[in-house]
């Protein structure tokens, strides 16, 4: 719009065409070009002649200059004028792997940039958007078919990363996963294998901890429900599953094996599964890292060597009957076993503190502490127990006096409740680990886990007194004991013994229950069995005879006669102590002689 009418022709292209014309002269070039009528054929001819000329003369010709020269030759009648303005520009210091970027520089030519931009806008952009739509639809369909959203780790909002997790659990779990996933750097392992086995009573956050670890390191978490599998499933073939639920869980296992990389296979509640099924994972824990499975009806051999694949199993080692569940020896030998419900050596204080840290989010007064400096909680606990060295002005968060009083009051009650929960936890583990044949009292089945602590913590109020707190704990365990039916009485009496609140009547009843339990265990067999009832009758008769024997022994015991004159006269009216023992009655406070039998005669010593 600012220059003469016509098309612009660069000076370099005009110089090239002038030299080309002088070179070709009266050759057949013009005749051949005039003989052709097809535009594509004419263009091909001109490009061939110009390319041959530049190659023969060694002229460095850019693709844009060649296209401009071809256009000028094909349309000689169009008005043109020359311009010395540059049509190219080089952009430097670029990063990327685009094919047009060479040595971090991109050369842009105005005329071809406009053509390429037009083609990109009209063809490439709509095609790319259509590709994205089809890809998104395909991914959404496959995500729904494979149920990938179910395998995304979801950390509970109430999860608290306690000192126990930071200082104990994460290093242990990290070492186990490093053996399975491999490491980088100088410590990189050439072999991978192993298994992580987490055990504990219910309510200690095994699944929550695994969810958190999988989320933090970006693993696909495939959770398999052990009770859904049951004890009858022994194969990884979905076609052999007894029901649809078990088949779905087996398909999850095969899906995890098929996914391979960046996958954590988590088998939960393995106490409800068959040991024969667990044996299938033994080869996966060795250096071979191979396991047989079935996918889409076809048998597969999954080779997981060199892949970031890990296996974690979790379960309750203490069943409702008090016996330990069984893990195949060869599998247990390859596993790193950690009990989240037990106390590791030297970590007693950290384990006890974890009960308070996990209960913070359950109580509305303590919930804000979960997101604040951990040192504040430790200092507040010291203030709650009356530590004279603890000072409130060292808290990182500014608390008002009223808020501080409420927090310390709740923490004080929480520590009291924690002592009971810890005692119940220890008694539950000790009882469940015993064999029924060696018990001296009924099995103790009340729970003392993090979940129990949270249930109690959510009901604690700052204005409670000690009696109200004790009643709260009693109410919780009384309600929990109702699920034990006939074992409720024994459980509550054992709880009272642990808390030191047994009355004289309760102590007598507890002794009767323990004696009856031992007698029943000694008899062996159901009470309805006639033989068992006969043996029980004989045992009762033996107890009565033993009671009579004890009464006779007490009656003739010289020390008993001295201490109890009524018993002495009842044995032989008018008999004096000197007649029976040879010791004056006035010497009854001195050391008493001990009677022993030698050669059928009773002698004193």
List keywords for this structure.
single chain, 605 residues, alpha/beta, Rossmann fold, 5-stranded parallel sheet, 13 strands, 51% helix, disordered C terminus
Structure report:
With 605 residues, the chain is an alpha/beta fold. It folds into 5 domains: 7-85, no CATH class; 88-146; 150-339, P-loop containing nucleotide triphosphate hydrolases (Rossmann fold, 3-Layer(aba) Sandwich); 348-523, no CATH class; 530-604, no CATH class. Helices cover 51% and strands 11% of the residues. The protein is built from 23 helices and 13 strands. The strands form 5 sheets. Strands 6-7-10-5-11 form a 5-stranded parallel beta sheet, sandwiched between helices. It has a two-stranded parallel ribbon with strand order 1-2. It has a two-stranded antiparallel sheet with strand order 3-4. α1 (11-24) packs across α4, α3 (39-57) packs across α4 (63-74) and α14 crosses α15. The longest helix is centred in the first third of the chain and has 37 residues, at 110-146. The relative contact order is 0.05.
């Amino acid at each position: 719009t600012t220059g003469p009418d016509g098309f612009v022709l660069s000076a370099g292209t005009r110089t090239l065409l002038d030299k080309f014309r002088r070179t070709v002269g009266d050759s057949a070039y013009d005749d051949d070009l005039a003989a052709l009528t097809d535009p594509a054929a004419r263009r091909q001819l001109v490009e061939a002649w110009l390319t041959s000329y530049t190659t023969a003369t060694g002229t460095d010709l850019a693709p844009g200059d060649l296209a401009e020269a071809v256009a000028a030759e094909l349309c000689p009648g169009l008005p043109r004028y020359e311009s010395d303005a540059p049509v190219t520009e080089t952009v430097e210091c670029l990063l990327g792997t685009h094919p047009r970027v060479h040595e971090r520089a991109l050369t842009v030519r105005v005329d071809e940039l406009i053509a390429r931009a037009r083609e990109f806008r009209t063809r490439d952009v709509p095609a790319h958007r259509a590709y994205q739509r089809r890809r998104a639809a395909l991914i959404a369909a496959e995500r729904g078919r494979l149920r990938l959203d179910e395998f995304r780790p979801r950390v509970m909002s109430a999860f608290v990363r306690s000192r126990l997790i930071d200082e104990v659990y994460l290093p242990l779990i990290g070492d186990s996963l490093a053996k399975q996933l491999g490491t980088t750097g100088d410590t990189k392992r050439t072999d991978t294998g192993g298994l992580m086995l987490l055990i504990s009573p219910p309510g200690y956050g095994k699944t929550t901890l695994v969810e958190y670890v999988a989320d933090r390191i970006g693993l696909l978490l495939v959770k398999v429900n052990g009770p859904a599998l049951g004890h009858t499933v022994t194969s990884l073939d979905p076609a052999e599953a007894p029901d649809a639920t078990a088949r779905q869980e087996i398909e999850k296992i095969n899906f995890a094996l098929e996914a391979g990389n960046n996958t954590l296979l988590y088998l939960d509640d393995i106490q409800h599964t068959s040991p024969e099924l667990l044996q299938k994972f033994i080869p996966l824990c060795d250096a071979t890292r191979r396991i047989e499975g079935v996918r889409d009806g076809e048998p597969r051999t999954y080779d997981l060597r060199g892949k970031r694949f890990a296996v974690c199993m979790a379960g309750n080692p203490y069943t409702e009957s008090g016996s330990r569940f069984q893990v195949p020896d060869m599998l247990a030998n390859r596993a790193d076993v950690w009990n989240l419900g037990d106390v590791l050596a030297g970590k007693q204080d950290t384990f006890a503190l974890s009960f308070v840290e996990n209960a913070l989010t359950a109580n509305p007064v303590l919930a804000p502490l979960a997101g604040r400096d951990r040192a504040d909680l430790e200092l507040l606990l010291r203030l709650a127990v009356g530590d004279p060295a603890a000072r409130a002005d060292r808290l990182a968060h500014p608390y008002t006096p009223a808020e501080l009083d409420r927090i310390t009051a709740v923490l004080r009650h929480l520590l009291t409740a924690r002592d009971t929960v810890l005692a119940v936890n220890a008694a539950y583990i000790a009882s469940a680990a015993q064999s029924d044949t060696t018990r001296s009292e009924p099995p103790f089945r009340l729970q003392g886990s993090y979940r129990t602590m949270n249930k109690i913590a959510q009901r604690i109020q700052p204005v409670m007194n000690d009696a109200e707190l004790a009643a709260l704990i009693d109410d919780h365990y009384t309600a929990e004991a109702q699920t034990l039916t006939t074992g409720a009485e024994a459980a509550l009496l054992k709880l009272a013994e642990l808390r030191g609140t047994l009355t004289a009547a309760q102590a007598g009843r507890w002794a009767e229950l323990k004696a009856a339990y031992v007698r029943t265990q000694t008899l062996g067999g159901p009470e309805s069995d006639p033989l068992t009832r006969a043996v029980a009758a004989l045992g009762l008769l033996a107890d009565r005879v033993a009671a009579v024997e004890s009464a006779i022994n007490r009656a003739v015991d010289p020390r008993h006669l001295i201490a109890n004159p009524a018993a002495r006269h009842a044995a032989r009216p008018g008999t004096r102590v000197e007649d029976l023992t040879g010791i004056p009655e006035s010497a009854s406070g001195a050391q008493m002689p001990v009677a022993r039998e030698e050669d059928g005669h009773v002698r004193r010593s």
